[in-house]
């Protein structure tokens, strides 16, 4: 089904495409941006916009989770981050933003070695739920068995299991691995799980009963992952592959629609448009939201891989603050670089290409046209 | 008919080419540059050169429209620009050229919020017509119904409807959209309409009765459109596709030849040559003419998207002033960068490849040879 | 025969390759560099190395023509350059090397407007012949009829007709064009003619009776030609195409072998190796020899297109001086950048890939492996 | 079997891929890094890690050969380097690290002109063997006949013959070339030989009876080799081709498994992962180990081609010192750039893609996804 390239006598591989390699093209119909809807629903939960704040301490705090919910999206709190390790992480977030580069990694390793406190997990979830928005929290596969009962008891609406690569079939000789299928079947709460970056991996995750699959090699900039691990799953192809798995699983399961959520590589409104064009139902945003003046990162952005003890595959990076969370989502934009008014840009793009809802927009025509940043 | 690439299981797309990706190659015959003609006619109007000044305030004023006409080309006045909003825009043009970068966008948004005055529309058209050159003015699809009667009554020779993307089938729930087919049928004046960037979109525009179609995603540099909207229609492929629509429509209509005008991506004489080589009948020039010392932009260039209220997709840019409008078109060129003597370069290119007129030159051989600017 | 790419509905084109896009790969056999021969013969003339100095004032003077001959190669004097316009051009060459950038073009236009003096043509040719080396001089197609009798009477061994693009079929309404076939037939001296950059153009040149064909779009850096004229003939493909014409013409003519000489794009020993690998019999070097401390350009390099009156497509460029002409050809090299010991590198490359003479080396395996200069 | 591209009428070539052009992608299974083994055996010798220190004076001294052995890998001493020319090379290594750039090449040419002393060959080998690690030394094909008896008598475990390109069929008119087949047959010690970069060259080397084949164009950065010789064998394709030869030779020989060792282009853990993914059994590391604070190069790196008398194809380069040899192999890594914790990264990559040993990992899925370093 896919075209393989011969790399040498012993090896073949597919050409894979990044968002930068592709672009959306207009077709014969156009629409008014006002006639476009950006609605998205997963399980019983409805959202005005297909935007999920990534479970990273620089992006989602209880406060920004509530803001994102009120702005029509969803914020996922990292239940293994500072908010469940410390009573009051605000001073620590401020400290991280003030650290000189050379000590940032070691100080963050120190901060994140504080144990997770189940009572804080409960408290944070309660705080978000009290605001009346949809509540979502994330755990890594490694900590899920230890903490999920606390999380469910506290009352999350959506449960996110997110790791670098999460497979339906994890092999371990040292511990009984998480049986995702049984775990999800037993749980009352819908589960979003990932990252997965291939058709097969995603299809297996869909068969576990997940409500949504995160597409991507979650965590760490593509450049550092590639330099350290040699691994790279260019996102345009990864999203299309997983969307293909969604279609095949829909048939195989007799009608279960598993949502495909692009998680990684979406830094601008142009990337967001392309992720949806390649077949994503929604996008999980990290750096794009960390650029908010009211984001918890205070102008910095980092993921869990930045403070890995022996093999850091990322680092704390300074990000430009381009406006409030609301301005980043709804404008007005002061600059034409795709960092603000993400939803305005999405509407304009859908209108220009003649589509009125996100599901239809997945069929928009794209071209391969590698872009030279110069 | 076109070769599609599999981007992933769920998605296919064509490879699209920019002018930078291609080059013209000489064939077995050569000619004297003196034996080459660059004539171009559309409807009853004849031009010595296939060059149209873009309807942008930094490029075409009544004065430069007249100059372009006298130099053998055509200037299209933006009938929604400063010249129809203010009695005397010259001081405002000078002010725009003197604004610091940080306030340019907001001051321009202010200036362009002044209402359009129908009497100024009439006055500007009269001024150009009085000089004895072909008169052309442009409106956006949004303002066409409001203003076209004033424009036609004032006596334009060519009517241009130009928007980001103009389709023959615009869908709107808030207002009755412009019925292009009926509008063009009822009008006595030939209409040039666009931008369109695909075969299908262009074919539908041709069926409305337009005399010419603008090829491109009009307005905004490719880089910013791509970052904000995720949209990009590389011009070499877009021109070839629309030229393909011209050929098919010629057959379908029993002989109506709709002119294909490349509008975007033509910044140098090399680009101009390639646009014609890919099948364009003429080119609409923006930045290439804004570089004239006597252009109204006074060393700056901007389009309507630069002062969009909520989603600016461009900005006022400083451009090098390389010579008078006449030198830009006919030389002599002081530098070998393709910014001056556009027509001399076109003649040399046609002569070197052995073609004697523009219609023949559309058959010239091209190669794919991506160019590294370093 | 060639694979075409669809660029759009109305247009197809081949992918063309530059020397930078390809590389030679070793095969199963290796040899001692001492067992390799770099001999080359054209007509009755034999050379130790397949290197021709380009007819450019910065590269070949009577003195360097003699040096190149004594070093085993061939120098072609530009018979329309300073040496046939002035009794003593040495002070003028020194002046050109001392001009500030901003006045270089205009002063050179002035210097080259001095008329050509037939008696100087005779004197220069005599000077070279007196040194006992093979004598070669070049004219443009435009001046050939006016000056060839002087050139032949003075006694050149090889006659070079070199222009931007030379075709066997030049069309002109203002003057009787040079009938190459008749001209070459009537001449007693073997003729090398070009540039040609396609199979068809080269095949027609071969049919005129030429002893050699120059491959390339002679004159002007690829970058400026591409920006100004939109023309680019990537050299690896061009050489292979013309080598294909050589093979087909050999069959068609019942055994006449026309030499293929790469003229352009050969700046390093790596490029020289690749030109021969793609099928060239010899290379014509410009900038590679202008880097000699004893080259007439005194650390500068320019071609006739640099002082074109209305459409300059190049300019005087400063080049690093890397050693004497002898060191550039035979080493020792102080740096590993391919600018010196061109012949040593060629020998090493032939030995490493197991070939013992240049004709065999045309069959060496090459790969497409675009090179990133960073 | 391989897809060829038409470069022009006279020439075809394959597209070849570098490590930078490809990436490994995760599949449906994941594992614990603890369950992964990186064992490798060649002949009777077993190693914990598939890492060989390259025979270069900046990488392997007797001391670092012992350290590498104790850390689970193998160090190969260059038996034509400073250690067999001087009684005490430490001051000379320190001097090389202190030389200004402009005199480095000439001083190194001087230092390496000192004759090789057979008694020092014996002494160095004895020193390494006394430490109880596997002993390996390398000679060039040119010096093998002169010195191999000394080497074997001193008691090496593995004999390495390493040159720019080593073929099974070297042709020489000046000296009787080394008959590899007879030489290896007569020798009691297993031989690793290379570089080879194509299927055919490697297959012929395998037929000589070698235990391992080095893949690469040994010596000199790809960039300088390409600029000087026009030769480039992109490593991803070269490793796959030679792995293909291994498979075919395994069948042809009725079961002899010849080890494929990537030698060149492996500068980071990401490259190491990709080399194994393309089919290598082990990697030979130069610059990656020269970055150790305890490497003999003292922060500099050079190969034999850097002090070639007439055609240097490399130079002494300064390299960042990123940690001890142990930290480079096993971490912890302070930076996410792939220069430290090579084995930790390999384990993580294998675990993430679900493979438990190196032989299985050769089957991991790869994609073509050219990487933009910006």
TrEMBL record, chains A, B, C, D:
Instruction: Note the InterPro entries from the entry.
Output: Aldolase_TIM (IPR013785), IMP_DH (IPR005990), IMP_DH-rel2 (IPR005992), IMP_DH_GMPRt (IPR001093)
Which key words tag this protein in UniProt? NAD, Oxidoreductase
The molecular function terms of the Gene Ontology recorded here are: IMP dehydrogenase activity
Q: Which GO terms describe its biological process?
A: GTP biosynthetic process
**Which Gene3D superfamilies does the entry link to?**
Aldolase class I
Q: Which residues form the IMP dehydrogenase/GMP reductase domain?
A: 16-301
- Cited SMART domains: IMPDH (SM01240)
- Transmembrane annotation, as ranges: none
Tell me which SUPFAM superfamilies the record gives: Inosine monophosphate dehydrogenase (IMPDH) (SSF51412)
Family the UniProt entry places it in: Belongs to the IMPDH/GMPR family.
Q: What NCBIfam families is this protein classified in?
A: IMP_DH_rel_2
Indicate what this protein is called per its UniProt record: GuaB3 family IMP dehydrogenase-related protein
| Organism of provenance | Microbacterium paludicola
């Amino acid at each position: 089904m896919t075209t393989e390239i011969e790399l040498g006598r012993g090896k073949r591989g597919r050409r894979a495409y990044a968002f930068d390699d592709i672009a959306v093209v207009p077709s014969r119909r156009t629409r008014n941006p006002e006639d476009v809807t950006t609605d998205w629903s997963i399980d019983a939960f409805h959202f005005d916009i297909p935007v999920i704040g990534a479970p990273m301490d620089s992006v989602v705090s209880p406060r920004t989770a509530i803001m994102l919910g009120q702005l029509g999206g969803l914020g996922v709190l990292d239940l293994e981050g500072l908010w469940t390790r410390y009573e009051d992480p605000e001073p620590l977030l401020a400290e991280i933003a003030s650290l000189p580069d050379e000590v940032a990694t070691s100080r963050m390793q120190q901060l994140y070695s504080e144990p997770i406190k189940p009572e804080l997990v409960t408290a944070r979830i309660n705080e978000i739920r009290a605001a009346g928005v949809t509540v979502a929290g994330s755990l890594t596969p490694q900590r899920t068995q230890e903490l999920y009962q606390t999380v469910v008891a506290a009352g999350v609406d959506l449960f996110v299991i997110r790791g670098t690569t999460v497979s339906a079939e994890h092999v371990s000789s040292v511990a009984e691995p998480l049986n995702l299928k049984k775990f999800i079947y037993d749980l009352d709460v819908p589960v979003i799980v990932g990252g997965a970056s291939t058709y097969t991996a995603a299809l297996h995750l869909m068969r576990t009963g997940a409500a949504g699959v995160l597409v991507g090699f979650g965590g760490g900039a593509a450049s550092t992952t590639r330099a350290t691990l040699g691994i790279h799953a260019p996102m345009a192809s990864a999203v299309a592959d997983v969307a293909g798995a969604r279609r095949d699983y829909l048939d195989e399961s007799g009608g279960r629609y598993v949502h495909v959520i692009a998680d990684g590589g979406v830094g601008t409104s142009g990337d967001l448009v392309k992720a949806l064009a390649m077949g994503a139902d929604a996008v999980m945003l990290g750096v794009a939201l960390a650029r908010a003046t009211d984001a918890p990162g205070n102008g910095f952005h980092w993921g869990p891989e930045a403070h890995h003890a022996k093999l850091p595959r990322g680092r704390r990076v300074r990000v430009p603050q381009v406006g409030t969370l609301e301005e980043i989502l709804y404008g007005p934009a002061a600059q034409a670089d795709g960092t603000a008014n993400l939803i305005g840009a999405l509407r304009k793009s859908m209108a220009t290409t003649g589509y009125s809802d996100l599901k239809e927009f997945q069929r928009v025509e794209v071209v391969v046209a590698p872009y030279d940043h110069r």
